[in-house]
Specification:
Blueprint: H1 7-10, H2 21-37, H3 45-55, H4 62-69, H5 82-89, H6 91-110, E1 121-124, E2 138-145, E3 150-154, E4 163-166, H7 167-173, E5 174-176
Helix pairs in contact: 2-3, 2-6, 4-5
């Protein structure tokens, strides 16, 4: 089959960090179907979808999301059991799964490769916002995940793990140290 566009032309150059509107609609439909199949509600699927859209992106605890749904804003009626509250508490992971799939497609489309090898010693040139690493820190790449283009870094080169940081962030804010 002849393709009109390559994947690298379809997917943007920068790392995707959101889901598309179509993905959001599909996710909300799937969640609404699950709510009905687990008998957390007997309301119409369209009402449940409207409610899920209202509480999207689900970045609160299950209890907080349940409080929102129990408010006067909800269209559907729900059975607020512990199981349902637990279900609501895990919805953000479903969004994260879609985001991760988008990243995997982006990595594949752009053939993203790591600049640094495992066990490389780096110096942080400028503080990386959102991490505990500051200018002048020496860190090590303990591992990397090629499918999502993230390094696992830590100040301890022998640690079995560390902080997950995107290739592009490490490569922008760090320099390789030669032994």
């Amino acid at each position: 089959m002849e393709r009109l566009f390559s994947d690298s032309e379809v997917f943007k150059k920068g790392r995707p960090n959101t889901i598309t509107n179509e993905q959001k609609k599909q996710l909300i439909r799937s969640i609404a179907n699950d709510i009905l199949s687990y008998d957390y509600s007997k309301s119409d699927i369209d009402e449940i979808e409207d409610d899920m859209d209202m509480i999207f992106p689900f970045n609160q605890t299950g209890f907080e999301l349940a409080k929102e749904l129990d408010s006067y804003l909800a269209n559907a009626e729900y059975d607020f059991t512990i199981d349902f509250i637990d279900f609501l508490g895990h919805l953000s992971f479903r969004v994260d799964d879609v985001k991760e799939e988008n990243v995997k497609l982006w990595v594949k489309a752009h053939d993203i490769k790591p600049k640094f090898e495992d066990k490389s010693k780096l110096r942080v040139k400028d503080s990386m916002i959102g991490t505990r690493f500051r200018e002048g820190d020496e860190i090590f790449i303990n591992y990397h995940y090629p499918e999502t283009a993230v390094y696992v870094v830590d100040k301890d080169p022998d640690k079995k793990g560390g902080t997950l940081i995107a290739y592009e962030k490490i490569e922008l804010y760090c320099e390789l140290l030669k032994d």
